[in-house]
């Protein structure tokens, strides 16, 4: 039921990409996105696709698994495509009453849908190859300079760690409560909208209660181990740049260079 | 109601790095009116197995018949199956959600489409079965109760559906000895009086040995042994090799024999052991 959600999931394979410093991967992802938004024509997409394929190959995550992440967002991608298809002015090639499709719209629709798909695949590569804990570690380190202007980098990172840490737990819990209520004859799948909304009550109430209980327990457990926020906190596994990170960052810069060149050419 | 399972296999997250083969080619039969104890080490697949019996989990392969209805076939009305097969989950107290205890227990029977009067009657009966005073508690919030009482409310919620087959997943986990004995006693009564088929999942050899007609031992997704408590507990070494043990009292009998007594070793309730030891001691005195 809920097992199809792979966004934000970690897929450990121990590959080169997995072993990169999380900061490299975060910066790389942002640069990738920046480059992607500079794309004006289909040719530039070849660079993007090549980069994605190389990354996926190097990460040893199966293609099928990466593409599965697109499934829950297919609706969004379709809507983007259709809006562009119908709303762009230009050469009409199909008309039915007030509904018109234009060549420009078709091109624009495909262009935007591809951009969205590359964006999703690219960002999911970050989470697929980086465990949530390392990821937030990286974010905290990158935000560190902002501490000078009183951005609570550590607290933000800690909140993210906890939130990410509890997503699978909550999914599991939802699954369990759903099954328990289904065993008592609950029906989550049929009926009209109002019926369905009502049928969620037996799921949501226990879920909320257990989330509060978990939050309470966690706060208690952290305090019992003397957690006092980020001040003077050291870490067991300090992040370290390696030669591979430098190589990757240079490659990423190269990609950005190409994208800029293709844009202004 | 009888259950027949043939070649049941279940794989969690197939095709991903988290793939787990939780059940491997499980075949077994359970007769109508049997009281089955299902034991096995943590992760041996007990919970996975029982969730197949009312269609909550779909078999990766294999088939299940409940009273000659094949429930693994596509298009089977699962709601009818769930009416007949009641399943009490591990830690069921976390599924409570209604404002009052009465409403919560009524959730199942109401979903069956019964009339209000009938529902109330069933709620009352179910609460009596788990020793919760109906008049005193029916309008209280389930969240005001102690953990053990909440567990009873949750069990009553399944009993009120009056299933023919009752499956309980570790119903006594983390209860005090008194609460544990009361609940087990109640389950035994249901089995004897209502002729329910009962499957009890438990880690306690003592409880299982005392209550059930037949024990099914699971190990790494397969059925390792199946037989009466006497048959099962006579294989102490085999049980220990898969991380399980025999009841403490059987150890005592063995230890006494090592010290020169001649006692039967296939004893697994304290009462039985008491009678045997007393008789033995008396016999010695007179001799
Ligand atoms: N929802 C799930 N997703 C993935 N794997 C699961 C899931 N539920 C169980 N498993 C795996 O299936 C195997 C069997 O689990 P199961 O819950 O059936 O064991 P169990 O015998 O009930 O154990 P316990 O005595 O601890 O309750 C375990 O290896 C477990 O990790
Ligand atoms: Mg279990």
**Share of helical residues of chain A:** 55-70%
Helix residue percentage of chain B: 40-55%
Note the total helix count of chain A: 11
Number of helices of chain B: 12
Q: How are strands sequenced across the largest beta sheet of chain A? A: 1-2
N-to-C CA distance of chain A: 48 Å
Mean pLDDT of chain B: 90
* Major β-sheet strand ordering of chain B: 6-7-8-3-9-10
Q: Catalogue the unreliable spans of chain A.
A: none
**Class by helix and strand content of chain A?**
mainly alpha
Describe the largest sheet of chain B. 6 strands, mixed
Classified by CATH, the class of the domain at 1-76 and 165-171 and 196-241 in chain B is Alpha Beta
CATH level 3 topology of the domain at 1-76 and 165-171 and 196-241 in chain B: Rossmann fold
Distance between the termini of chain B: 52 Å
> What structural class do you assign from the helix and strand content of chain B?
alpha/beta
């Amino acid at each position: 039921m809920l097992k199809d959600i792979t966004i934000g999931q970690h897929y450990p394979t121990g590959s080169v990409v997995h072993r990169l410093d999380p900061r490299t991967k975060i910066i790389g992802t942002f640069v990738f996105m920046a480059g992607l938004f500079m794309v004006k024509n289909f040719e530039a997409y070849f660079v993007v696709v090549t980069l994605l394929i190389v990354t996926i190959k190097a990460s040893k995550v199966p293609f099928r698994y990466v593409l599965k992440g697109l499934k829950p967002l297919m609706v969004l991608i379709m809507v983007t495509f259709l809006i562009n298809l119908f709303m762009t002015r230009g050469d009409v090639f199909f008309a039915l009453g007030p509904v018109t499709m234009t060549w420009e719209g078709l091109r624009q629709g495909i262009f935007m849908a591809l951009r969205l798909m590359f964006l999703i695949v690219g960002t999911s590569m970050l989470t697929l190859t980086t465990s949530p804990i390392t990821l937030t570690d990286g974010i905290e380190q990158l935000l560190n300079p902002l501490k000078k202007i009183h951005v609570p980098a550590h607290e933000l990172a800690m909140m993210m760690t906890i939130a990410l840490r509890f997503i699978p737990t909550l999914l599991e819990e939802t699954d369990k409560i759903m099954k328990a209520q289904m065993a008592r004859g609950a029906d989550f799948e049929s009926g009209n909208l109002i019926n369905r909304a009502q049928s969620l009550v037996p799921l949501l109430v226990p879920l909320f209660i257990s989330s509060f209980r978990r939050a309470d327990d966690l706060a208690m457990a952290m305090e019992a181990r003397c957690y006092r926020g980020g001040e003077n906190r050291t870490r067991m596994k300090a992040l370290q740049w390696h030669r591979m990170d430098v190589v990757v960052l240079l490659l990423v810069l190269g990609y950005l260079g190409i994208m800029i060149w293709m844009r202004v050419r | 109601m009888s259950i027949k399972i043939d070649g049941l296999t279940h794989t969690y997250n197939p095709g991903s790095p988290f793939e787990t083969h939780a059940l491997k080619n499980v075949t077994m039969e359970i007769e109508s009116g049997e009281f089955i104890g299902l034991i096995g080490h943590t992760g041996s697949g007990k919970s996975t197995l029982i969730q197949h019996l009312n269609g909550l989990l779909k078999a990766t392969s294999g088939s299940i018949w409940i009273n000659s209805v094949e429930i693994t076939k596509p298009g089977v009305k699962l709601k009818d199956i769930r009416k007949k097969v009641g399943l009490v989950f591990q830690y069921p107290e976390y599924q409570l959600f209604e404002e009052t205890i009465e409403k919560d227990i009524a959730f199942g029977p109401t979903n069956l489409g019964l009339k209000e009067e009938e529902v109330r009657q069933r709620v009352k009966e179910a609460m009596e079965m788990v020793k919760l005073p109906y008049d005193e508690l029916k309008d209280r919030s389930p969240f005001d109760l102690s953990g053990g009482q909440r567990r009873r409310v949750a069990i009553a919620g399944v009993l009120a559906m009056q299933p023919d087959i009752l499956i309980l997943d570790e119903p006594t986990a983390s209860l005090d000895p008194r609460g544990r004995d009361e609940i087990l006693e109640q389950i035994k009564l249901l089995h004897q009086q209502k002729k329910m088929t009962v499957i009890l999942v438990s880690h306690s050899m003592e409880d299982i040995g005392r209550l059930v007609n037949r024990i099914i031992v699971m190990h790494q997704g397969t059925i390792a042994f199946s037989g009466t408590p006497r048959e099962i507990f006579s294989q102490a070494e085999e049980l220990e090799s898969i991380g399980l043990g025999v009841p403490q009292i059987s150890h005592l009998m063995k230890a006494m024999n090592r010290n020169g007594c001649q006692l039967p070793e296939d004893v697994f309730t304290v009462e039985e052991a008491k009678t045997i030891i007393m008789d033995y001691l008396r016999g010695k005195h007179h001799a």
